[in-house]
Amino acid sequence: MIRKTNLKIVFAHLTSRVKQTMVAILSVTFGISMYIFLNSFMNGVNGTQTELAFSTLAHIRVYNDLPEDKSNLLAGSFDQPTAVNIRNARVIQYREGIRNSAKVLHTLAALPDIKTYTPQVNINVFFRNGASQVNGLLSGVEVLSEEALFKPSQYMAKGQWNNLGYRADGIVLGKGLAKKLSVKLHDKVMVATASGITRSYEIIGIIETTLANVDNAKAFIKIGAARQLLSKNAGYVTDIQVNIGDFDQARRVADKLSPLVDFKVEPWQEANGQLDAANSLRNILAVAVSFTILLVAGFGIYNIMNMTVNEKIREIAILKAMGFNGRDIIEIFLTQSVIIGMLGGVVGMALGNVISRIVNQIPFQIATLETLPIAYQVEDYIMASVFGLCTTFIAGYLPARKAANIDPVEIIRG
Q1: How far apart are CA 106 and CA 225, in angstroms?
Q2: Positive or negative, the Cα torsion across 343, 345, 351, 354?
Q3: What φ, ψ does residue 43 adopt, rounded to 5°?
Q4: SS3 category, 91
Q5: What is the tens place of the pLDDT at every residue in 46-104?
Q6: Which residues contact 93 (CB under 8 A, 6 or more apart)?
């Protein structure tokens, strides 16, 4: 009976001061909607930056690194009285690249953590067109596995990426590199290696990734053509690029892979500390901003509930004089706060979704983007509803406890 009466009192409080109730609901709505929008926007920006960064960067790189051999080879060859003077000692790398890549590729295929991989033959070369000469990187690739890993076809400004698989004399140039050489599609470009080998290729595609190190200094040819240029065997590669399901797990997978191969296994964080730090800072910033917004909304509800308790302090005293105990008073004000939180939360999530969709339509012509990036994640909506309810519960409980401790005799006496 008392519980039913408590609900009637809650309804009376909510409807007697409609403006005050609406202000409380709007404060929750604002907090939740901004939480949804900012998280969707930050996740969209993070996702886009990650996608751009990993358009040419693999999660793990396997290559033949210079060995750190510091052993003294003369120690066992001379007796102790013999004086030996060694100056300018050097470690010589006898083996270049990975000569038998099939063994490493077989190991990668057997690991469940590996999602996809592609071999490459990367060569430092000079690109020439008439008097123009630009030094850069020529990358011999397997067209299909390169597409599976980096999706270069998405960044083709001219020509088709798949045509590279059918043309041993074809080359895809970065857009900035083509501009420096003053060449266009179907023109010829000369490529010269450090050992003096020169070969002519026809430009069958121009790629634009918006990454300066790729667009201004990189070109792609078929991997077989790159091996011919270096006079290497069919199993020779300089790098094996590997992608896994979650790029944040690259260190763990690299540690797992390292004992299985005889070459350097390098996770992306090891060679790109700035990118790793930027990702962490963006995530911290998003959490800090979202938490601040919800906290501000919570303080708004607390202030409104506190004002309600102060305004209705005589009514609370009368209720306690009529037999309502402190638990009933807490129940009344807490229920009132939770209803405000639920209504504000539902409207806030809908409003946040609408704002996100509107922002997602704003033109933003940079890199591969056409509009501002937004990511819609169910986790954001679940977190918003849970955190919103918790915030309103705490914001309602503190004034409710204050109301429950009121001495009706002192209030009625004035």
Answers
A1: 23
A2: negative
A3: -65, -35
A4: coil
A5: 788 777 777 778 899 999 876 665 566 666 666 666 777 777 776 665 567 888 888 89
A6: 64, 66, 67
Task: Residue 301: name the closest of 388, 403, 401 by CA.
Answer: 388
Say how far apart CA 173 and CA 169 lie, in whole Å: 13
**Residue 70: φ, ψ to 5°:** -110, 15
Q: Write down the pTM of the prediction.
A: 0.66
| Neighbouring-strand partners of residue 140 | 121, 221
Whose structure tokens read 């429950």? 404
Helices (H), 264-363: 268-271, 273-311, 313-321, 326-359
Domain ranges within the chain, ordered by starting residue: 4-55+277-413, 60-67+95-244
pLDDT of residue 171: 94
- 8 Å CB contact between 120 and 139: yes
For the chain, what is the radius of gyration of the CA atoms? 33
Task: Name the one residue in this structure whose structure tokens are 């050992």.
Answer: 195
Q: How far apart are CA 7 and CA 13, in angstroms?
A: 10
Residue 350: what are its φ and ψ, rounded to 5°?
Answer: -65, -45
Sign of the four-CA dihedral 270, 271, 275, 281: positive
Nearest Cα neighbor of 408 from 315, 336, 339 is 315
Please name the residue ranges forming H helices in 55-204. Answer: 101-110, 143-150, 175-181
Residue 242 makes CB contacts below 8 A (sequence gap 6+) with 58, 59, 60, 61, 62, 108, 114, 116, 117, 257
pLDDT tens readout for residues 148-204: 988 889 889 999 999 998 888 999 999 999 999 999 999 999 999 988 889 999 999
Q: What six digits make up the tokens of 128?
A: 């020439």
Between CA 43 and CA 357 the distance in angstroms is 14
Residue 66 to residue 96: CA distance in whole angstroms? 9
Q: Is the dihedral of CA 31, 36, 37, 43 positive or negative?
A: positive
Work out whether strand 188-193 and strand 198-207 pair parallel, antiparallel, or are unpaired: antiparallel
d(CA 304, CA 20): 8
Range in 24-33, 54-63, 263-272, 297-306 the model is least confident about: 297-306
Q: Counting every residue, how long is the chain?
A: 414
